[in-house]
Structure formats: C-alpha cells, structure tokens
C-alpha cells in the first residue's frame, strides 16, 4: 500500500506542477487602463436644489474647471463661475482631485467644498457637488472640454 500511496502523491504533485508551470500570469486591470488626460478647460452648466429656494439652474451661471497640472491620477487647478456675459460671479477657487481606476472623479475645493463624479467621455465629465451647511444644497455640473 505504501508504494501505491507514494505513486498517487507523486502523480498529484506532478499534476500541480504542470498546471502551475504552464499558465501565464494574468495582467493587472490597473496596467490595462490608460490614465485619462484631464488637462485643459472644462466648461458647463449647473442645476441643483437648495433647501428653502427649491430647484435651480444657478441663475444660468457657467462653471469652468481649469486643470493646469496632472501627475498620473492626481490633478489640480482652479474653478471659476461666470454669468452668461462672462463676468465673474463668485471668487475663483483652487482645487485638486483624483481619478479612480474606474474613471470616477473626486474633487476638493479650497474653502471646503467637495464633489464626486465621473468621466463620461474623453471630453465630458460630470460632478455632483454636496453642501451640508444651511441652507443645504446639491448641484450637478455637466462639463465639456473646450
């Protein structure tokens, strides 16, 4: 019986070695995903809801996200808001963000604002801005690279 057990164990070990030696390692998904280039100006509209005021198109304001630097998955720049005539209606704010491996975006603004979003297409992004202060509000920003 000992010889039969040794033979079975030897065959099992040989099968494991053959299977392990003939498979190719799978590439990591991270290596397959190309880092999107966000450099440039992204402009678009904002719509949302503010407690006490209701639904709003933010007085027709335009938001511009200027991404001036990017290192791998981290980017920085500034955000500005203008009216339809191009005049600034709020102060320009510094910002920085990260790109997730699934093309999700997280953005933090100077002064405490933050947004999450996603890259819809190479030249289109969408951010959701949340503000829990009174009066609380939530805004969706649809931006296209210009």
| Oligomer classification | single chain
Number of discrete domains: 1
In order across it, which strands form the biggest sheet? Answer: 1-3-4-5-6-7-8-9
Using the coordinates above, name the CATH class.
Answer: Mainly Beta
Shape: elongated
Q: Give the second-level CATH assignment, the architecture.
A: Beta Barrel
The tally of beta strands, per DSSP, is 9
Number of helices: 2
Runs in which pLDDT lies below 50 for 5 or more consecutive residues are none
Order of helices and strands: HHEEEEEEEEE
Secondary-structure content class: alpha+beta
CATH evolutionary superfamily: Quinohemoprotein amine dehydrogenase alpha subunit, domain 2
The share of residues in helices is 10-25%
Give the overall average pLDDT: 85
Computed CA radius of gyration, to the nearest angstrom: 26 Å
N-to-C span: 79 Å
| CATH topology assignment | Lipocalin
Q: Which range does the strand content fall in? A: over 45%
Main sheet properties: 8 strands, antiparallel, barrel
Features:
146 residues; alpha+beta; Lipocalin; 9 strands
Tell me about this structure:
- This protein has helices spanning 2-22, 29-32, and strands spanning 40-50, 54-56, 62-71, 74-82, 88-99, 104-109, 114-121, 124-131, 137-145.
- The chain has 146 residues and is an alpha+beta fold.
- It has a single domain, classed as Lipocalin.
- A hairpin with a 5-residue loop joins strand 4 and strand 5.
- The protein is elongated.
């Amino acid at each position: 019986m000992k010889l039969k057990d040794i033979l079975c164990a030897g065959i099992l070990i040989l099968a494991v070695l053959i299977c392990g030696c003939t498979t190719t390692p799978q590439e990591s998904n991270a290596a397959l995903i190309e880092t999107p280039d966000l450099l440039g100006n992204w402009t678009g509209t904002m719509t949302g809801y503010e407690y006490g005021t209701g639904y709003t198109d933010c007085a027709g304001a335009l938001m511009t996200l200027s991404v001036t630097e990017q290192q791998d998955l981290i980017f920085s720049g500034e955000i500005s808001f203008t009216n339809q005539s191009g005049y600034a209606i709020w102060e320009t704010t510094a910002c920085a963000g990260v790109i997730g491996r699934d093309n999700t975006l997280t953005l933090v603004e100077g002064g405490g604002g933050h947004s999450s979003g996603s890259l819809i297409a190479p030249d289109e992004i969408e951010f959701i801005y949340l503000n829990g202060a009174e009066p609380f509000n939530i805004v969706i920003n649809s931006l296209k690279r210009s």
